[in-house]
Every structure is written in C-alpha cells, then in structure tokens.
Design a protein that fits this description.
It contains seven helices and twelve strands. The strands form two sheets. Strands 6, 7, 8, 9, 10, 11 and 12 form a seven-stranded mixed β-sheet that branches. The longest helix has 13 residues.
Amino acid sequence: MKDLVIQLENRDEKSLVLSRFMAIRKVISKKILNRIGVLKILKGIWSIEMAPCIREVGRNLYTISFRSEECLRRAIEKGPSLIMGCSFAMRIWPRGISVMEVMIDEIEFWVQIHNLLLELMTSGNARRIGAKMGRLIMVDEGLVKEGIGRGFLRIRLGIKIEDPLIERFWIPVKDKERRWIMVKYEKLADYCYTCGKLGHQMKSYGSEIKMATHNKIMMKYGEFLRIAPIKNKGIRQWRSGEERRRYGEREDNWRRNMKEDGNRKGGKEKEESMGTGKVDERETR
C-alpha cells in the first residue's frame, strides 16, 4: 500500500495577517501551571489591540499573535515575565516550521555587573563580559555614559536554560591579584539554590546546599542574585550586529539615532507603553 499523500492549502488572507508576527512563550518550570491563570495574566500584559490572539498549544507552552513587528520586538525585549513565580522564555515562530520545532533553549535577562573598579566601567568591558557570559544582545549605554555613579554595568544577555546561572567571576587587577565581580539578574524567577538552574527548586536535591568557592561559609546561590529592574526612559542602547540585522535596522540609522540622543538637551519624550490600548481591569503582572 502506498503512503497517503494529502495536498494542503495555505492559510487564507485573514489568517495570514494574524499569523504574520507570531511568538511562542514557554514556562521554565517542571510543574504545569494553571492554563486559565496563565492566559488571564498574559491577556493583562498585552491588550487585544497589541496581541489579538493568545492561546495554549502544549504543556506550559503558549502562542501569541502580535499586530506588528514592532510590537513583537518590544515584547521580546521586555524580558522574561514573572508569572506564578516562573520565568517565560520567548521565541519568534517563523513560517516554515511547526510549533514543536521552534527551539526554545535560551532565555533573555537584563544582567547587572557589580563591584567593578571605576576605570573598568566602559562599554568595551560591558561587551567583553557579555560575550563571555552568554549571547550578548545589547549594552545599556546610559549607565556607562551617564550612570557611572550607580556603580555597575548593565547588559542584556541570552542565557542557555540548561546552564547554571553565573553568580560571580574573577578579574585580574594590579600586583597579580584577583577581584571578585558580582552578577545580579533583573526579573529573576525561582531557581535552584543547589545547581543554579532555572525551572526547579532546591527541594529537587533534598537538603544539599552548594557553597561558594571563594568563601566556604557562604552559599553559592541564593536570593542575592535577584535585583530590581532599572527603568531607563529615552536612553538609547547599544545593540549587537546580529540583533540589528534580525529586526532590519541599518548601521547608519543606528549610529545617527545614538548621536541625536546624545545631542538632545531638555524636553520630555513621549513614553510609549507596551500596554497601549483599551484600559481594562484584567490581572496584570
């Protein structure tokens, strides 16, 4: 008997419009979250004008249809949402592959680098650190040029979900000495204090606790890796070449915008919010 072959048609025009800017969000957790609760929270984050269709498509897996590429881009850049104590990883769902073929093995974070010497707080060092820690997406130039007094660098990274979080690293300083540099993650959800991975809690390993290598009486992982997000309004960020190509940004436009932002004095730019649309009383994050 011959294999069955069925000729299928493409989506109609209306469906193609709704599926043009699709994303998939995956809950980073071993436990299955309540689908009704998750959908309610997601619909509270994005209005129907911005995301007309949000659905569950698998265990801890949800698809979101956005109105425009800009809405999709900003949703991805907003960082992992904290929903029911868990992080959500988001990926674009391109045409030509099924939902189960979308590789979701990475999650994006804004990461703060603390305990750096003043002379080491440069854009070049921020990019160098980011390239070593994961996939460098962008550098918060505002903190380098205008926020040195805050005492840290800020970078956006793509981090492998299966890898343990980097909690600190050494840097060489004068006289052959080394200095510990502390790493903190914005919007960091529950993670394991034993193995340092997202998606499960320490109870998976019983009562075992991992101690820091530089101080045997200090835990390697803990609440101290979390930090509140920084809100930068109207500050342009350095974006890696890969990310600019992904969203069709040209190098000259990017550099011109950076220059314009640097020359702008006074005035208040109108803040564009992701939540633009009808105001409702649905649950938000």
